[in-house]
C-alpha cells in the first residue's frame, strides 16, 4: 500500500496525465485501506481475515463538462488509461453550469492539523484474546443460550487529495473495534442482543468483557416481549436508537437535497426547528474522533459548526456544486469515495445533553415506549413523514416496565424535532452521539 508521499505523487501524476490529454482542470483522490479481524464462536476460533485495498478517483473538467471515474489499479499504465477514459467520458457529458472545482481562495493552505487519528495496531493474538474475552463474558450471563460470535478488528486508512488549482495534502487514520452478539431463550422465544465499540486508539475502547456483558444484558432483557395498545403517546429513544434521528437531520440539511427542493426543512433556515434547549454540533477537528478530518473532499479546511443553535437551524451543509446552485459558498462538508463525485456528509455530530436525568425525563409519562431498536426506513424527506418498526420497553407510570416488540412508531420529523427533549446521559462513543431523547405526540401501532 502506498504511503502518504507516494499517494500524493501518484495523484499529481494522474492529474498531469489528464491535463496532457485535454482536461482544463482535474482533481484526484487516493484511498488505501487495510484491516485485520479475528472471529470466535462458542469458544473456538472461527476465522481470521486480512484485507488490503487501494483506489484512485479522478475527476476531470472540460469547459462545463465533467466526468468522474475510479480504479483499483495503481501502476503508471493503468493511471494513464484511467485518465484517457475520464477525458472520453467528459467530452460527451452534458454541460453543467455548476461544474467547477471548489473556490481556489477557500482551499486549505499549510500543513493539515494533527488530530491524533493514528495508533499502533495489535497483532492477531491480541485480537483473538479480545474477541474471546467479549464472548466469554457474554456467555457467562444467566439466560444466554447461544452465541452468534464475537470479533475484534483493527486497521487503517490513508487518504490523499490533490487538485489542479493548488491543493495537495493527506492524512492517515487507524481503527480498532470489538463486537459481540449472543442469543437468550429457547425455541420461538429466543431474543438476540449485541454491542460493539470502535475507536481510533485501542486505549479508548472499553474492556472487551464489558462489551460482551452488555450484549448479553440486552438479549436477556428482551425475553418474553408483550403487546401494547395503539395510540398517541410519548416515545423515548435510547442513545443507540436516537442516533438515527440526527442522521435524518443531516440528510435534510445537506446541500444537494436543498438544491433539488427535496427537504422538509427547505424553508426553515434561520428558524426555530427544535426547542431552544437543543444544540447540535458538528466537529470535524475533534481529537481522535471517528468522523474527524483535517480537510474536506474538495480540499477546503474543516471546522466545528453548530448545525442547530439553541433550536435554530443555522444553515445548510454544502459542497462546491450545491453551493453554486444555491448562490453560496461551500461549508467544508464535501466527502469523496474513490470513483464518485463529491457528496455531502457530517463528521462528529453530537446533540448536547439536557439537564434532566433519564428518570426525571420519563417521570410524568403515564404510558409510553422506550425504543431500543428500530427496523425499516419509512421516511419521506420531502414531507418529513416518519414510520418505522420498533421494539423496546413499555413505560408505565414513569417506570420502565416489560419488553415490547413488533410495534410501529409514526409521526412527522418536523413535529418530532419541535417537541424533542434531551436527558443528561450523553456519551461520546461513535461518530454520531445523542443522549436519551423524548418525543411527545407520536403514534404507536401496537400488536
Report on this model:
The protein has 447 residues and is of the alpha+beta class. It folds into 3 domains: 4-106, PmbA/TldD superfamily (PmbA/TldD fold, 2-Layer Sandwich), CATH 3.30.2290.10; 124-153 and 175-221, 2-Layer Sandwich (PmbA/TldD fold); 225-447, no CATH class. The protein is 23% helix and 37% strand. The strands form 4 sheets. A 6-stranded antiparallel β-sheet has the order 3-2-1-4-5-6. Strand 5 and strand 6 (191-199) form a beta hairpin. Helix 3 (124-139) runs parallel beside helix 4. The protein starts with a helix and ends with a strand. This is TldD/PmbA family protein. Residues 126-223 form the Metalloprotease TldD/E central domain. Residues 230-446 form the Metalloprotease TldD/E C-terminal domain. It comes from Croceicoccus ponticola. One of its GO terms (biological process) is proteolysis.
Q: State the helix count.
A: 9
For the CA atoms, what is the radius of gyration? 24 Å
Unreliable stretches (pLDDT < 50, length at least 5) are none
End-to-end C-alpha gap:
53 Å
* Helix/strand structural class: alpha+beta
Percent of residues in beta strands? 35-45%
- Say how many strands there are: 19
By oligomeric state, this entry counts as single chain
- Count of individual domains: 3
Strand order of the largest sheet: 3-2-1-4-5-6
Helix content: 10-25%
Broad shape: globular
Query: H/E element string?
Result: HEEEHHEEEHEHHEEEHEEEHEEEHEEE
How many strands, which pairing sense, and closed or not: the largest β-sheet? 6 strands, antiparallel
Mean pLDDT reading: 96
Amino acid at each position: 500500500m502506498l504511503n502518504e508521499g507516494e499517494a500524493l505523487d501518484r495523484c499529481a501524476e494522474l492529474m498531469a496525465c489528464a491535463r496532457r490529454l485535454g482536461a482544463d482542470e482535474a482533481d484526484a483522490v487516493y484511498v488505501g485501506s487495510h484491516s485485520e479481524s479475528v472471529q470466535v464462536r462458542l469458544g473456538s476460533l472461527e476465522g481470521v481475515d486480512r484485507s488490503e485495498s487501494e483506489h484512485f478517483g479522478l475527476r476531470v473538467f472540460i469547459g462545463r463538462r465533467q466526468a468522474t471515474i475510479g480504479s483499483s489499479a495503481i501502476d503508471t499504465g493503468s493511471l494513464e488509461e484511467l485518465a484517457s477514459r475520464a477525458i472520453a467520458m467528459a467530452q460527451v457529458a452534458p454541460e453543467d453550469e455548476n461544474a467547477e472545482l471548489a473556490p481556489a481562495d477557500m482551499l486549505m493552505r499549510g500543513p493539515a492539523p494533527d488530530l491524533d487519528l493514528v495508533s499502533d495496531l495489535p497483532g492477531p493474538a491480541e485480537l483473538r484474546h479480545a474477541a474471546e474475552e467479549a464472548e466469554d463474558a457474554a456467555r457467562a450471563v444467566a439466560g444466554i443460550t447461544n452465541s452468534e460470535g464475537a470479533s475484534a478488528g483493527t486497521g487503517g486508512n490513508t487518504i490523499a487529495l490533490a487538485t489542479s488549482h493548488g491543493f495537495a495534502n493527506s492524512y492517515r487514520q487507524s481503527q480498532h473495534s470489538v463486537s459481540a452478539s449472543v442469543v437468550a431463550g429457547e425455541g420461538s422465544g429466543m431474543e438476540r442482543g449485541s454491542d460493539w465499540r470502535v475507536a481510533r486508539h485501542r486505549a479508548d475502547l472499553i474492556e472487551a468483557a464489558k462489551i460482551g456483558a452488555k450484549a448479553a444484558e440486552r438479549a436477556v432483557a428482551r425475553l418474553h416481549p408483550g403487546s401494547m395498545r395503539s395510540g398517541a403517546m410519548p416515545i423515548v429513544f435510547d442513545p443507540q436508537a436516537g442516533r438515527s434521528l440526527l442522521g435524518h437531520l443531516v440528510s435534510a440539511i445537506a446541500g444537494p437535497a436543498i438544491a433539488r427542493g427535496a427537504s422538509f426543512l427547505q424553508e426553515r433556515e434561520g428558524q426555530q426547528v427544535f426547542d431552544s434547549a437543543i444544540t447540535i454540533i458538528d466537529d470535524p477537528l475533534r481529537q481522535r474522533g471517528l468522523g474527524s478530518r483535517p480537510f474536506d473532499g474538495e480540499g477546503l479546511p474543516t471546522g466545528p459548526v453548530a448545525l442547530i443553535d439553541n433550536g435554530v437551524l443555522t444553515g445548510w451543509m454544502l459542497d462546491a456544486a450545491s453551493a453554486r446552485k444555491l448562490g453560496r459558498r461551500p461549508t467544508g462538508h464535501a466527502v469523496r469515495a474513490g470513483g464518485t463525485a463529491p457528496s455531502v456528509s457530517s463528521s462528529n455530530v453530537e446533540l448536547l445533553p439536557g439537564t434532566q436525568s433519564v428518570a426525571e425525563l420519563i417521570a410524568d409519562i403515564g404510558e409510553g415506549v422506550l425504543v431500543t431498536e428500530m427496523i425499516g426506513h419509512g421516511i419521506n424527506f420531502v414531507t418529513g413523514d416518519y414510520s418505522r418498526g420498533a421494539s423496546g420497553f413499555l413505560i408505565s407510570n414513569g417506570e420502565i416496565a416489560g419488553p415490547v416488540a413488533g410495534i410501529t412508531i409514526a409521526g412527522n420529523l418536523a413535529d418530532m424535532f419541535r417537541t424533542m427533549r434531551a436527558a443528561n446521559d450523553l456519551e461520546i462513543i461513535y461518530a454520531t452521539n445523542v443522549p436519551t431523547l423524548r418525543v411527545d405526540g407520536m403514534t404507536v401501532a401496537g400488536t
